[in-house]
């Protein structure tokens, strides 16, 4: 069987800003069922308010895109529990909005939404901007703030229309410094229309939002797709200090092995992208399992083993990742069919998938973690050759790795050193804010 499966990689991919943001919002939904569909509902409400208030199509687009990912900084479950209550405490929300804006700031395809995410919990009038003494709060961020509060007010087990009067009263009687009056007035006009409340409850928000508003089309290069993949990897890696650099290591090793195996330049970059994305399915795994220092019990192991399935599910929402989702999601599959969760055997695993499996094993066993040291070279070689004998992993890729062990090790080490510097800078930037430092217990990874 020819393992060099046909892959369709291109220099540019045409997509829309909405498709990227919507797919990311669906990934965020997996973190906690309490906020399922929250991002999409807020996006619809905010977009509707922005349009009703007379903003330009581009401004409405930015409001919707930012709304779709507005809680991207909420990377641990316990903060979601804090956010789903009606009452809002400005200072307490600062950690996650700073984390979110930091994650998004380098995403060139969305140059305007980082600041909107940063200020989406800021009231209309405040005595002091606790996030920055020099920045002006973007007016559009107030729309997301209002839309977020409206959705939080709505109980999921009761028709939205039946709650209309309750929400109208809450918004109408809110302190004058809480919401922008122009936005409140726009909402109150919308609230008179029954279809607005029916649309909020529509489960499939994709066609509702995509075809009700205008969005830009973008030509994404592989380098821009790579940057998007890095963002996604940070979302999962930054949830846990133990694995804060893991995806960067796998990405670097996968790219190196792809080069050694004679893949094209584009395929090597695709392998790097797949490496960044391989564990994105861990967004669906409870934090207490990801953070656990001790050995997992059988039930926890079964839950953790779901993550490649969710990697596949998440990447299925991203058209730009269509050609590499198999590479990323099949990293726990074995040639003899005993891997998980798809139990694919050798003839269904192409070279990209086989490289990912070896790259993940190598990185996991040779990287330093707080609770264990890396596997010595000779031990690793013995273990991985034994896996070849058991028909678990590809012998040719393993021999390439062994013959170039020191070079690949240095590649992993260098990539993870850079990733660790980025992670430490991320923590430093968040904790440098006094209010965030006081409330750092709401972001688990900041407490280490």
UniProtKB/TrEMBL annotation:
InterPro entries: HD/PDEase_dom (IPR003607), HD_domain (IPR006674), HD_GYP_dom (IPR037522). GO terms for molecular function: hydrolase activity. Keywords: Hydrolase. The keyword RNA-binding does not apply. Residues 35-153 form the HD domain. The keyword Hydrolase applies. Residues 221-417 form the HD-GYP domain. It comes from the Bacteria. CDD domains: HDc. Transmembrane segments: none annotated. This is Metal dependent phosphohydrolase.
């Amino acid at each position: 069987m020819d393992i060099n499966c046909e892959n369709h990689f291109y220099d540019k991919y045409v997509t829309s800003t909405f498709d990227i943001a919507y797919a990311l919002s669906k990934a965020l939904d997996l973190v906690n069922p309490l906020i399922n569909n929250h991002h999409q509902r807020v996006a619809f409400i905010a977009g509707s308010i922005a349009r009703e208030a007379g903003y330009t199509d581009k401004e409405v687009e930015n409001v919707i895109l930012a709304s779709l990912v507005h809680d991207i900084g909420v990377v641990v479950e316990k903060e979601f529990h804090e956010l789903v209550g009606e009452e809002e405490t400005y200072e307490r929300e600062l950690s996650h909005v700073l984390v979110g804006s930091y994650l998004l700031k380098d995403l060139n395809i969305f140059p305007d939404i980082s600041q909107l995410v940063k200020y989406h919990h800021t009231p209309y009038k405040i005595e002091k901007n606790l996030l920055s003494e020099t920045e002006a709060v973007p007016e559009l961020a107030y729309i997301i703030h209002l839309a977020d509060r409206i959705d939080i007010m709505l109980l999921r087990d009761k028709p939205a229309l039946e709650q209309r009067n309750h929400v109208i009263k809450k918004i109408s009687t809110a302190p004058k410094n809480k919401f922008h009056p122009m936005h409140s007035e726009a909402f109150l006009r919308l609230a008179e229309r029954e279809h607005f409340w029916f649309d909020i409850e529509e489960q499939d928000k994709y066609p509702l939002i995509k075809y009700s508003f205008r969005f830009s089309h973008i030509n994404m290069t592989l380098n821009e797709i790579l940057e998007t993949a890095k963002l996604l990897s940070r979302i999962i890696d930054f949830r846990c200090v133990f694995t804060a650099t893991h995806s960067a290591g796998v990405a670097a090793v996968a790219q190196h092995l792809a080069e050694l195996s004679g893949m094209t330049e584009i395929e090597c970059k695709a392998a790097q992208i797949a490496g960044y994305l391989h564990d994105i399915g861990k967004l669906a795994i409870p934090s207490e399992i990801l953070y656990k220092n001790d050995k997992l019990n059988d039930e926890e192991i079964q839950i953790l083993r779901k993550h490649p399935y969710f990697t596949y599910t998440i990447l299925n929402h991203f058209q730009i990742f269509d050609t590499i989702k198999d590479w990323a999601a099949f990293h726990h599959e074995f040639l003899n069919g005993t891997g998980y969760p798809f139990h694919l055997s050798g003839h269904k695993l192409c070279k990209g998938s086989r490289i990912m499996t070896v790259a993940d094993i190598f990185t996991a066993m040779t990287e330093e973690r707080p609770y264990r040291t890396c596997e010595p070279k000779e031990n690793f070689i013995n273990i991985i050759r034994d896996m070849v004998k058991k028909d678990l992993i590809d012998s040719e890729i393993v021999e390439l790795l062994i013959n170039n062990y020191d070079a690949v090790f240095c590649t992993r080490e260098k990539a993870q050193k850079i990733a660790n510097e980025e992670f430490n800078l991320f923590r430093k930037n968040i904790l440098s804010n006094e209010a965030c430092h006081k409330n750092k217990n709401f972001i688990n990874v900041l407490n280490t």
